[in-house]
Amino acid sequence: VHGDTPHGGTMSSTFARALSARRSAALLAAVGAASSLGAGFLFSRDSVGPSERTKRRLYPPSAEYPDLRKHNNCMASNLTPAIYARLCDKVTPAGWTLDQCIQTGVDNPGHPFIKTVGMVAGDEESYEVFAELFDPVIEERHNGYNPRTMKHPTDLEARKDHRLSKILENLRLQKRGTGGVDTAATGNIFDISNLDRLGKSEVELVQLVIDGVNYLIDCERRLERGQDIRIPAPVSQSRG
Fold first, then answer.
1. Is 106 helix (H, G, I), strand (E, B) or coil?
2. Which of 13, 21, 160, 195 could crosslink 174 through cysteines, CB 3.0-4.6 Å?
3. 178 in a known ligand binding site
4. Is position 209 annotated in a ligand binding site?
5. Is 180 annotated as a binding residue?
6. In order of start, what are the domains of the chain with their CATH numbers?
7. What is the DSSP track for 168-220?
8. Do you know which PANTHER family this protein is assigned to (predicted)?
9. Is 32 annotated in some ligand binding site?
């Protein structure tokens, strides 16, 4: 439609400007809506704390529980459907899941005569988030060591204790090199023998070695449990 306007323009140019303005307004509105949606999405992600993160699953835990009947590893020995159901939706702050922890044990059933661990920790928090499975696996792998109730000793061997020499002296024993007299100790392995050579019968000397070695074994076991050891009272050096 063409026609003159009171201001000297045409009706077609006026209509075109109005249409262009409407399109610009609509475009800006669309951009604004998209920006608001994006901001809302980012805010939603940032508002979720790491400790509260969970993973949504398409199927129930029972449908995704792995078949471990032919597996020989510590993970397979301790994972149950109930534990899997409680842990499968949890996620560590770094995004690590239970399925990622156990995947290596699922893919590698293990050797019938060599029992492996069968799981890995993806980050430090894995040991806490999935503690219900990690704790029994650690306990089995490390011969009953419970990471929740036990403290690992810094030194498990009595032969490295500074009191060993005095303990041996009071037991009337001595330590020599790995190969006996005039030899060096290899790998902290000593030859334990009688300190006395005269003044006692052979039976008495053998019994001193038996009693003394048993005492040393007891000392090592006490150190393994985190308990202290004591220096025994001196054994009599003469008969009667």
1. helix
2. 195
3. yes
4. no
5. yes
6. 61-142 (1.10.135.10), 163-225 (no CATH)
7. HHHTTEEEEBTTBTT-PPBTTB-EEEES--SSS-HHHHHHHHHHHHHHHHHHH
8. ARGININE OR CREATINE KINASE, CREATINE KINASE U-TYPE, MITOCHONDRIAL
9. no
* DSSP conformation letters of 23-82: HHHHHHHHHHHHHHHHHHHHHHHHTS-GGG-B---SS-HHHH----TT--BHHHHH--HH
pTM over 0.85: no
Q: Determine whether the annotation assigns residue 181 to a binding site.
A: yes
